[in-house]
Design brief:
- The complex is a heterodimer.
- Chain A is mostly helical.
- Helices cover 65% and strands 0% of the residues of chain A.
- Chain A contains 16 helices and no strands.
- In chain A, helix 7 crosses helix 14, helix 8 runs parallel beside helix 13 and helix 12 packs antiparallel against helix 13.
- Chain B is globular.
- In chain B, helix 1 runs antiparallel to helix 3.
- Chains A and B meet through helix 14 and helix 16 of A and helix 1, helix 2 and helix 3 of B.
């Protein structure tokens, strides 16, 4: 069969056209690394970006955070939710609005975001169970498939044909991408993470979420991998044709959850995904 | 180019269309899970999450 192949240069060139993260988000994320954070100054910086402020407040007021209707300013959001959560919320809002909804046959944008959010919440729950960084896990979960979104946005014809082929042969989309596009969404996501200067552990989690590398203890890539599997298995994308990808037994053993922990994570992930997704309509 | 093939096990029709209209009966749950986990089932592997999800689905809501 004839099929589209993406030249690596074309993918790199498109990734470079992605807008930089807004200065306010960059400052917010850098502030998390410092101890002497001037919260008022930071809140003022974010507040000057009206679009970012509106998106952040809408998400902060969602039922998930339990403060619906109470957050009316960025300063208030930081007071009530904390700096780390506001940084995550603002980053989420920006990432969602960075990609236009182009027509790509077989790609469901709403289903994509439902799965991304559910994976973010699941990864955060896994982090709590394994005493890892919950906000980093949330970011890794939210962004793990960002390469798919980029392919749908920038190469809709090629991805559409790939998804059609995957459906016809009933294989996981990553297999079809590797075969037909000569790359895959995890590799493309890794490029985007580097473009946006995400922390190396988050970039690795995005790049390796289908095949986490060997390690002595659980990594962010393991959490993204297991969370991705769990949310596909929980059927949270709402897509009829969903398919649970292969699970790395090594990663599963490193995460080392008890059956009771797993059941609690399932319950909480379902509840959180349901409560927040309506607030993120893009 | 050669195309990857998977053993020709016919995929079951999905039993539940969305998380809000989820299967609740044991047979429906099994049918939907068999569909979601079809890649590992067709390869003859039992996915570690299969029974955990099944247990979760069939449990009474708390």
């Amino acid at each position: 069969m004839t099929h589209p192949t993406l030249h690596p240069d074309a993918v790199h060139a498109k990734v470079r056209t992605l807008p930089a993260l807004p200065q306010a988000v960059i400052e917010l994320r850098s502030a998390l690394k410092r101890e002497d954070v001037a919260v008022d100054e930071l809140a003022a910086t974010i507040s000057h970006d009206q679009a970012l402020t509106a998106k952040t407040l809408r998400l902060a007021n969602s039922s998930f955070y339990g403060v619906a209707g109470r957050v009316s300013s960025i300063r208030g959001a930081i007071n009530i939710l904390g700096l780390r959560t506001v940084a995550t919320v603002a980053t989420t809002a920006v990432v969602i609005s960075s990609f236009d909804r182009t027509a790509c046959a077989g790609f469901d944008f709403d289903g994509f975001w439902r799965h991304a959010l559910a994976t973010a919440f699941c990864a955060q729950e896994l982090a709590a169970a394994t005493h890892m960084d919950g906000e980093a896990a949330f970011s890794a979960g939210l962004l793990h498939d960002i390469g798919r979104l980029a392919l749908a946005t920038y190469f809709p014809l090629e991805l559409g044909q790939t998804l059609a082929w995957a459906g016809e042969h009933d294989v996981h989309s990553i297999e079809a991408e590797r075969l037909m596009l000569n790359t895959d969404h995890a590799a493309v996501g890794g490029l985007i993470a580097e473009h946006w200067n995400f922390a190396p552990a988050i970039a690795e989690a995005i790049r390796c979420h289908h095949e986490p590398p060997a390690h002595k203890s659980a990594t962010l890539a393991d959490l993204a991998h297991v969370a991705d599997n769990m949310t596909h298995a929980l059927d949270l994308s709402g897509l009829d044709e969903d398919m649970v990808p292969p699970l790395s037994l090594a990663a599963w053993e490193r995460v080392a959850l008890s059956p009771q922990q797993v059941q609690k994570i399932f319950e909480r992930t379902e509840r959180q995904a349901q409560s927040v997704r309506d607030s993120l309509t893009v | 180019m050669s195309e990857p093939t998977r053993s020709a096990v016919p995929a079951a029709e999905p039993a539940a269309a969305s998380p809000t209209a989820r299967a609740t009966g044991a047979a429906e749950v099994r049918e939907r899970l068999n569909y979601l986990f079809r890649a590992s089932l067709q390869d003859g592997r039992l996915h570690p999450l299969y029974h955990l999800i099944q247990q979760h689905r069939l449990r009474e809501p708390s």
